[in-house]
Design a protein that fits this description.
The complex is a heterodimer of chains A (311) and B (327).
Chain A: H1 2-29, H2 34-39, H3 45-54, H4 61-73, H5 87-122, H6 127-141, H7 144-158, H8 170-200, H9 203-210, H10 215-252, H11 258-267, H12 271-299
Chain B: E1 8-21, E2 26-41, E3 46-50, H1 57-64, E4 72-77, E5 80-81, H2 87-93, E6 97-100, H3 114-124, H4 130-143, H5 160-172, E7 178-182, H6 190-207, E8 210-215, H7 218-224, E9 227-232, E10 235-241, H8 242-247, H9 252-259, E11 310-313, E12 316-318
Classes of the chains: A mainly alpha (311), B alpha/beta (327).
C-alpha cells in the first residue's frame, strides 16, 4: 500500500508540471500588457519598460517559465503585483477559508445526497423517490450563482435570518456551503440511488435476507457498503467541481477564499497570484483523488495495489 | 423414505408481477410467473422442479421461501402457515429454510470474508458467537470440502466450484430442514457439476435434508430427485415419482423434454419430438391449455378448455385433455 501511494505521488509530478505549463501559457496569451497594468495608467514609457525588465517579461517564455519553476521549488511563488505581498502569504491566508467552505459543502452534499439516494432506492417509485429525483434534477441543473442569489433573497432579504455575505460566525457559512453543496448533493443522490438499485438486485442481498437479518442490516451492511464505490469516485471528482464552484459562490457571498482571490487577481492582471492559486487547486485535486483511490482498497477487498500479502 | 405428513405443502401458489406503463405508472397487465401450483415434499425427499427458462420455477422457489410476496395461495412448512407469519416469526423460520443460488458469483457479498458471510447467520439467530462461531464455520467448511484456512478469504479468491461450496456451507450452517437449490450447478463447469451433485447428496444423507431442486437438466434431476414436477408457463403440467416419470411420461410437454435428453446408448436414440415456436409470453398466455400452441397432439378442445391437474396413475398427476383420468 505504501509503495502504491509513493508511486502515485511520483506520477502526480508530471501531471502537476503539465498543469503549471498550461496555466503559465494560458495567462501569457491573455491580451493586455501586465507591465502597463502594474505601472499604472499614468506611468511613463521608461517606467513601464523598467517594470517589464524586472518581471522578466522581455525574456522568452521558456526563460520566464524556468525562472518561475526554480523559484517555486524554493518555496517562492513571487509577489502579487497588486498588493506587493508574497503570493504564498496571500494563498495561505485565503486557502483555509476555501477549504472550510468546500469541506462543509461536501459534508452537506454527502448527508443529503446519500440518504436521499438510499431512501429512494429502497422505496423505489414511491412519492419520496419521485420527488427527490425531481429535486435532484433541478439541483443538478440550477447554476450556483443563481441558487446563491435566490438564497440571499430568501434568507437575508425576506426572512433576515442569515447574513448575505462575509465571513465570521457559522451563520456566514450556512448559505455559501448550502449553495455549493446542493448541486453535488443532487448528483450524489442520483448516483447513490442507481448504485443501490444495482446492488439490491444481486443474489447476495437475497442471501442476506434468507439469513434472517432485519431489513436495516441488509440495507446498510450488505447493500450500502457495496454501493459506495461509484459514490466515492464521484465524490472525489466532485471535490474539484466544488473548488471550481467556490469561485462563483465566494464571489456571490463575498467569501474571502481562493476563488474570490482568483477572480480579483484575474481582473487586476495579477499573474503570479492567478498562477499560484490555480497550481494550488490542482495539487489539491490530485491529492483528493489519490485519497479516493486509497479509500477504494478499504471499501472493496478485491482491489489491491501492488503485491498482496500472503496469509 | 416417505413420511405420512409432508414437510412442505404448497397449495395454489400464485405470483404475478404487475406491468406498469405510462406517466402515472398504471398497472396495465400482469406477468403470471407462477400461476397456481401445488406440490408436496416429504421429509428427506428431493423434489425436482424442471422446465424451460422463464417458466417460473425460480420464482416459485423464491415465493415458497417468501423471499417474494405471494399473490395467492398458501405454503405450509413443518405444520405452519408461512404466509401468515409476522416478521419476527418469519426471521426465526429462516433458520429452517435456506436457498442455494445458481450464480455463485453474485450470491456472495464481495465485501465479506467467507467466515463472516457464513458466520453472520449464526450470530443473528443467537446460535454461536466469537470462538464458537469460528469453530462451527470451520467445521461446516470442512464438511463442504473446503479448508479452515478459507475462513479469512474473500469470495473473489475462489473458483466457481469453490464458491458454490461456500454458498452451500452458508446455507447449511444453520442446520436447516429444507433447502431450495435453484439451479445450483448450471453455472458451473461440467467437470465441477458432478462434484457438487455428489456433495449435495452426501449432505442430504448426513443431515436428513429435504430439497426443492430446481433445474432444467433432466439428467441431473433423474440422478437427484425422488419426485419430479414439470412446469410450463407458471403451471405444473405433470407431477410423478421419478421412476414412473422417466419410464412413462404422460404429458406431451414432458415427452418432448425427455426426448431431447441425449441417449447414453448409441443407436438407441429415441424419436425426438421437436417443439415448434417459442414459449408464449406469461403476460399474455394462450387460452385453454397454455401448451396447445406448441403441442404436437393438440386438438380443438385444447384451445378452448383449461385442463386441470388430474390423477392419471398411482401417485401420478398430469394436466392434459388427452390423458385418461384414473380413479
Amino acid at each position: 500500500m505504501y509503495g502504491y501511494i509513493i508511486r502515485r505521488l511520483l506520477l502526480a509530478i508530471p501531471v502537476l508540471i503539465g498543469v503549471s505549463i498550461l496555466v503559465f501559457a494560458i495567462i501569457r496569451f491573455i491580451p493586455g500588457d501586465p507591465a502597463r497594468a502594474i505601472a499604472g495608467v499614468h506611468a511613463s514609457p521608461e517606467y513601464i519598460e523598467q517594470v517589464r525588465r524586472e518581471m522578466l517579461l522581455d525574456e522568452g517564455l521558456h526563460v520566464q517559465y524556468f525562472t518561475y519553476m526554480s523559484n517555486l521549488l524554493q518555496g517562492d511563488m513571487g509577489r502579487s503585483t497588486f498588493t506587493r505581498r508574497p503570493v504564498t502569504v496571500e494563498l495561505a491566508q485565503r486557502f483555509p477559508n476555501t477549504l472550510l467552505l468546500a469541506a462543509t459543502g461536501m459534508v452537506i452534499a454527502s448527508i443529503i445526497g446519500m440518504s436521499a439516494g438510499v431512501v429512494s432506492a429502497t422505496k423505489r417509485y414511491s412519492i419520496f423517490d419521485n420527488a427527490s429525483m425531481l429535486a435532484a434534477l433541478v439541483g443538478v441543473a440550477a447554476p450556483v450563482f443563481w441558487l446563491g442569489v435566490m438564497f440571499q433573497l430568501l434568507f437575508s432579504v425576506h426572512l433576515g435570518w442569515l447574513p448575505s455575505g462575509g465571513i465570521g460566525t457559522w451563520k456566514h457559512l450556512v448559505m455559501p456551503a448550502l449553495t455549493l453543496g446542493l448541486a453535488t448533493a443532487a448528483l450524489l443522490a442520483r448516483i447513490t440511488r442507481s448504485s443501490m438499485l444495482e446492488v439490491l438486485g444481486q443474489d447476495y442481498i437475497t442471501t442476506a435476507r434468507s439469513k434472517g437479518l432485519v431489513e436495516r442490516v441488509v440495507i446498510y451492511k450488505h447493500a450500502f457498503k457495496n454501493a459506495l464505490i461509484p459514490v466515492v469516485t464521484v465524490m472525489g471528482l466532485q471535490f474539484g467541481t466544488l473548488l471550481g464552484g467556490a469561485v462563483l459562490t465566494e464571489t456571490v457571498f463575498s467569501w474571502p477564499g481562493i476563488g474570490r482571490l482568483m477572480v480579483d487577481s484575474i481582473l487586476a492582471r495579477d499573474y503570479p497570484v492567478v498562477q499560484g492559486a490555480v497550481l494550488l487547486l490542482a495539487v489539491f485535486f490530485v491529492m483528493i483523488n489519490l485519497i479516493v483511490d486509497v479509500i477504494y482498497a478499504f471499501l472493496d477487498p478485491r482491489i489491491t495495489y501492488g503485491n498482496r500479502e500472503v496469509d | 423414505m416417505e413420511a405420512p405428513q409432508p414437510i412442505l405443502e404448497v397449495e395454489g401458489l400464485k405470483k404475478y408481477f404487475s406491468i406498469k406503463a405510462g406517466v402515472f405508472s398504471r398497472v396495465t397487465g400482469h406477468v403470471r410467473a407462477v400461476d397456481g401450483i401445488s406440490l408436496k415434499i416429504h421429509s428427506g425427499e428431493t423434489y425436482g422442479l424442471v422446465g424451460e427458462s422463464g417458466c417460473g420455477k425460480s420464482t416459485a422457489g423464491m415465493t415458497i421461501l417468501r423471499m417474494l410476496n405471494p399473490t395467492a395461495g398458501s405454503v405450509n412448512f413443518m405444520g405452519e402457515d408461512v404466509f401468515a407469519m409476522g416478521k419476527e416469526k418469519m426471521r426465526n423460520l429462516r433458520k429452517n429454510m435456506q436457498i442455494i443460488f445458481q450464480d455463485p458469483y453474485s450470491s456472495l457479498n464481495p465485501r465479506m470474508s467467507v467466515g463472516e458471510a457464513i458466520g453472520e447467520a449464526l450470530e443473528v439467530h443467537g446460535i454461536a458467537r466469537g470462538k464458537e462461531r469460528r469453530e462451527r464455520v470451520e467445521s461446516i467448511l470442512k464438511v463442504c470440502g473446503l479448508d479452515s484456512y478459507h475462513y479469512r478469504r474473500y469470495p473473489h479468491e475462489f473458483s466457481g466450484g469453490q464458491r458454490q461450496r461456500v454458498g452451500i456451507a452458508r446455507a447449511l450452517v444453520l442446520e436447516p430442514r429444507f433447502i431450495v437449490a435453484d439451479e445450483p450447478i448450471s453455472a458451473l463447469d461440467v467437470s465441477i457439476q458432478s462434484q457438487i451433485v455428489n456433495l449435495l447428496e452426501e449432505l442430504q444423507e448426513k443431515f436428513g435434508l429435504t430439497f426443492l431442486f430446481i433445474s432444467h437438466d433432466l439428467s441431473v434431476v433423474k440422478h437427484m430427485a425422488d419426485r419430479v414436477g414439470v412446469m410450463y408457463l407458471g403451471r405444473i403440467v405433470e407431477d410423478a415419482p421419478k421412476k414412473e416419470f422417466y419410464a412413462s411420461p404422460l404429458h406431451p410437454y414432458s415427452q418432448a423434454l425427455l426426448s431431447a435428453v441425449p441417449s447414453m446408448l448409441p443407436g438407441f436414440d429415441k424419436k425426438r419430438v421437436i417443439l415448434k415456436g417459442d414459449v408464449p409470453s406469461p403476460a399474455n398466455p394462450p387460452p385453454g391449455c397454455t401448451f396447445h400452441t406448441r403441442c404436437p397432439r393438440a386438438v380443438k378442445m385444447c384451445s378452448e378448455e383449461v385442463p386441470v391437474l388430474k390423477k392419471v396413475g398411482p401417485d401420478h398427476y398430469a394436466s392434459c385433455h388427452l390423458v385418461e383420468e384414473v380413479s
